[in-house]
Amino acid sequence: MTSSFPWLSLLLVLPLAGAIAMYFATEATAKWIALAATLADLFVALPLWWLFDPQASQMQFTEHVAWITVPPIYYSLGLDGISLPLVLMTAGIMPLCVLASWNAITTRVRGFMAMLLVMETAMVGVFVALDFVLFYVFWEAMLIPMYLLIGVWGGANRLYAAIKFFLYTLVGSLLLLVAIFVLYFYGGHTFDILALSQGTYPASLQMWLFLAFFAAFAVKVPMFPFHTWLPDAHVEAPTAGSVILASILLKMGTYGFLRFSLPMLPDASRIFTPMMVVLSIIAIIYGAYMALAQVDLKKLIAYSSVSHMGFVTLGLFVMNQQGIEGAVLQMVNHGITTGGLFLCVGIIYERTHSRLIADNVGLASPMPQYAVLLVIFALSSLGLPGTNSFVGEFLVLVGTFLWSKVATALASLGIILAATYLLWMIQRVVFGVPSPHHLPKLKDLNRRELATLVPLALLVFLIGIFPNPLVSRMHQSVTNTIASMSRAKVAPTAPPSAGLTGPLLAVGGEQLKIQGALR
Amino acid sequence: MSLYGADLLALLPELIVVFAACLVIVLDPITPASRRDLLAWLSIGSLALCIGLTGWQINELNVRVSAFSDLVVVDAYARFWKILLYGVTALTIFMSLPYLKAERVHLGEYYGFILLALSGMMVMVSGADLLTIYLGTELMSLSLYIMTGLNRAKPRSLEAAAKYFVLGAFSSGILLYGISLLYGMAGSTKLASIAGAIGTRGADDPLVLIATILIAVGFSFKLAAVPFHMWTPDVYQGAPTSVTAFMAVASKAASFAAFMRVFVEGLGGLKADWSVLFLVIAVITLVLGNVVAIVQTNIKRMLAYSSIAHAGYALIGFVAAGLGVGASGGTPGLASIMIYLTLYSFMTLGAFALIGMLRKGGVEGEEIEDFTGLAKRQPLAAFLMLLFMASLAGIPPTAGFIGKFYVFMAAVEAGLAWLAAIALIFAAVSAYYYMRVVMVMYMREPDPSSVEQPRLVASPALSFVLACAVAGVILFGLYPNPLVSFALQSVLTFK
Q: Alpha carbon A359 to chain centroid distance?
C-alpha cells in the first residue's frame, strides 16, 4: 500500500533534527533529546510494518524528487521486502544504543549523541535510497561520524582503530564510485537503481564492476581477508559504536551485494560464485577458530561476527530462494543477537572495567538476570532451535545444499565451532568459580539496562518461533531479485555510449579466458 | 574617444580595479595607521562595482566581445572566472584585516597589491593573445612576490619571496620562449591565428611541439604541477597566511583559466599530444602531492602539498576534456574544472582563515600539533575545521565531494575509468592526512605543561569569511545545481 505521506523522508529527518538540536542542548538534556529523537523515529518506522504490502512486487512508500539536474540525480526513496526489515532493525537498535550510552559516556555527551543521530540518518538512508548517487552520499556520510565515535569515545588504542576503519572503508567505497560512473554511461545515462538493475552489461565489464562493488561491500561485511579492521574497531569502540557496527553497518555490505551486485551483474555474480562461496566458508571457519582463541569478550564476539556474516554472504551467493531469504533473515538475526551480546559486554564493562573473560568469571550468582539474558543471546548466536538464528542458518544451509553438498558440510562446521566458543565462554563467564578477591559486589541489571536487553531477547524468540511474518514480507522481493538475475544473459559487447572506448574493454579477451578457467 | 570607446568599455572592470589600486597606494601615506581599514573597504567597494559591471557586460549567454583588435575578449567564460576572482579577493581582504593586524604588518599598500594582482588575473582570464596573457601573468606574479615578502621581520617570509621570485622569473622565461616560437611559426601571438597556423602546418611540426611543451612547462609552474612544484611548499609556508590563501585559490584559478584557454583555443589542434602529456603530469602530481603531504608537520606546508594534489585532480578534468569524444566534445571536462576550483576555493579559504587566526600568544599556530585538543576549547572552530578537512578529502555531503564527482565523471565519460580509479585511491591517501588534523583536534588531549593553548581569535571579519566558506561548502555540497549550470553555460563560449 503506497501512501503519499513521506514516511521515509520523515525517518531521515527526525534523527537529523535531533542532531541539530544538540547544538542548543546542554550536556544533561542531550541524552533525553537523543532518546526522544530515536524513539520518535522508531514510532514512525513501526507502522510501516503493517502498511507494507507483502504481495506488491514494486517499491513502496516511494518518493521521487529531482535533486541535481546535470547529470540527472534524484532524491529517490523506496522500501521493499529486503530493506523493510533492515530499516526497522536500524530504528529499533538506535534507542537501545542511546540507552546503553546513558552512563557509559561521560565526556562530550552532546557531540556523542549528535554523532549517533547523524549515523541513524545515514544508515536509514543507505537502506532506502533508490538513486545510486544518493545511496553513495549516505554510504560515505557515515564515515566521519563513525570515525569520531571510535576515535573520540573509544578505548586505549582508539586512534589506530579509528583511522584503520576509516581508510579501509574509504578505499573500497571510492572504487564503488568509479563503478557507479561506469554504470551510468553504460546503463542509459541514469543513476536510478531500479533502471540500472534492468539493464544488461557486457560480460567483461560486469567482471570489473563486480570487483569494484566487491571492494566496497566486502570490506564493509567484512569478508575474509578484508576483515582485519573489524576486531580493532569493535574492541576500541564504545558500546553503542560496537552495536551500531555489528548490528547495522555490517549489514550494509551484504545489503549492497544483494541490491546491486546480484541484480545488476548477474553474469559476473555467477562467475564469481565459487570465489564468494570459498571466501564465505573461510570466513565461517576462520572467524570461529579466531573466536575460540580470544580472551577478550568483545574480540570474541567480533570474530564470531566475521563467522556469522560468512553465513550471510554464503546464502546470498548460492543464489536461490532459500539461500537469499535465509541470508536476509540472518542479517536481521545477527543484528539482534550480536547487538544483544555487545550490549551485555558493555554492561559488564561498566561494572568491572574489564572486558577480559578472566576478570568476569562466575556472574550467575551475583547477577542472575544478566546471566539469563547473556545465555539467551549466546544460545541464539550458536543457532539453537527455537531461537532466531536457527531459522536463518537453516535456510542458508538448505540453500547451500542445493548448490553444493561439500560447501554445506564445511559451513556446518561453523555452527559446531560456534557452539564450542560460545558455550565455553558461557561456562566461564556465567558458571565459572570466581577467584575470591574478584567481583566484589556486582549489582544486577537496573531498569534501564533491562529495557535495552529485554526487547532484543523477546525478538530472539519471536523470530525463532514464528518467523513467517518476516519471511512473508521479504518473499516477493527476493523472488524479484532472483527473477532479475535470470533475465537476458550477456549484452552485446558494443558499448551503447560512444563516450566509452578502449581502456575499459581492452582487457575483455583476457577476462573471458578467466571466466573459462573458473568454469 | 569614439575610436576606443567600445574597447575601453570592455576593459572597464580591469580599469576600475587598477584605478582603485592606485588610489589605495596614493592614499596610504596620508591615512593614519588607525584608519587603514578604510583602504580595505575602498578595495571591497571597487570589487562590488566590478561584480555589477561584469554581470552587466555579458547579460546574454554566448556573447563574446573582442576589444583592442582581439587582444582581449569578454565572454561568459571570462565572466565565470572574474566573478570567482572578485569573490575570492573580497574574502581574502576580509581575512587579511584581522590577520595583518595580529601580525603587526597592517600596511596600506597590501590592499593595493592585492588589487593589482587581481587586475593581472582578470587580464589573464580575458586574454585572447599570448602576450596579453603573459602580461597578466607577470602583473599577478610580481604583486604576489611582494606580498609574499610582506612580513619583513620574518626571515622565512623573505626567503619565500626570493625563492618565488627566482623560480617565477625562470618559468616566465620558459613561457615567453614558447610564445616566441609560436610567434615565429604563426607570425602572430593571437590564439586564433595560432590555431589557424597549426591547422595549416599540421600538428606534427616539431616547432609546434616544442613550443607547446615550453608553454606547458611555463603554465605548470603557475599551477604548481609536478615536477614544477618545488617552489610551492616553501612559498606557502613562508608567506603571510592570507597571501598563501590568495595564492592557493585565486592565482591557481586564474592560471587554470588562462591555461585552459590557451590550450583549447590556441593549441586545440594538438589535443592528442597534450592530453597524454597532461595525463602523465596529472598522475605524478596527485601521487606526489598526496604522498608527501602525509609526512608534513606544518599545516601550511601540508596544505601546500594538498594544493598540488588538487591541481592534479583538476588536471584530470583537463585530460578528460582533451580526450573527450562524442557529442559533448570535452565540455564536461572543462566545466568540471571550473566547478572543482570554485568549490576548492571555499574550503581552502576557510581552512587558511582558521589557520591564520589560531594564535598561541601573539604567534600564529601553524603546526598541526597546535590544533591539539581544539575541540574541547573551541568546539565550533574545531567543527568548522572538520568540515573543511572533510571537504578537502572529498567526503559527502560536502562541496569537495561534488567537485570530485564532476571531475571523475568527466574522466569516466572520456574512457579513463582506470585513471579515475587511481586518482580515487590517492584521494583515500589524502583522507589520511586531512583526518590527522581532525584526529589531533578531537582525539588528543593538549599537553598540560604548556602554559598557553592556541586559540582562535574571533573577530567580525573572520566570522564573515568563515560563514561564507561554510555556506559554500555545505550549500554547494547539498545543492550544486546553480554552480553546475553556470559553469556549463560559461564553457559554451569556447570554440
A: 30
Closest Cα partner for A397 from A387, A383, A417, A386?
A383
Using DSSP's 3-state secondary structure scheme, residue B456 falls into: strand
Which residue reads 555589477 in cell numbers? B52
Identify the residue among A178, A211, A219, A500 best suited for mutation to test binding to B, counting B beta carbons within 10 A and taking the highest. A178
The backbone torsions φ and ψ at residue A75, rounded to the nearest 5 degrees and listed phi first, read -85, 90
Q: What is the pLDDT of residues A115-146, one digit of tens each?
A: 999 999 999 999 999 999 999 999 999 999 99
CA-to-CA separations, B225 to A22, B228, B401, in angstroms, rounded: 43, 6, 22
How many residues in total does chain A contain?
Answer: 519
Which residues in chain A have Cβ-Cβ distances shorter than 8 Å to B417?
Answer: 178, 181-182, 503-504
Contact B442, A151 (CB under 8 A): yes
Q: Is A501 helix (H, G, I), strand (E, B) or coil?
A: coil
A158 CB neighbours in chain B (<8 A) are 443
- Predicted complex ipTM: 0.92
**What's the Cα-to-Cα distance from B342 to each of A488, B319, B399, rounded to whole Å?**
44, 19, 10
Q: Best residue in A13, A23, A70, A115 to probe B by mutation, most B CBs within 10 Å?
A: A70
Q: What is the pLDDT of residues B69-95, one digit of tens each?
A: 888 888 888 889 999 999 999 999 999
Domain ranges of chain A: 7-518
- The enclosing H or E element of A312 equals helix A297-317
**Cα distances (Å, whole numbers) of residue B163 to A381, B37, B154, B228, B256:** 66, 31, 15, 13, 22
For residues A141 and A139, what is the distance between their CA atoms, to the nearest angstrom?
6
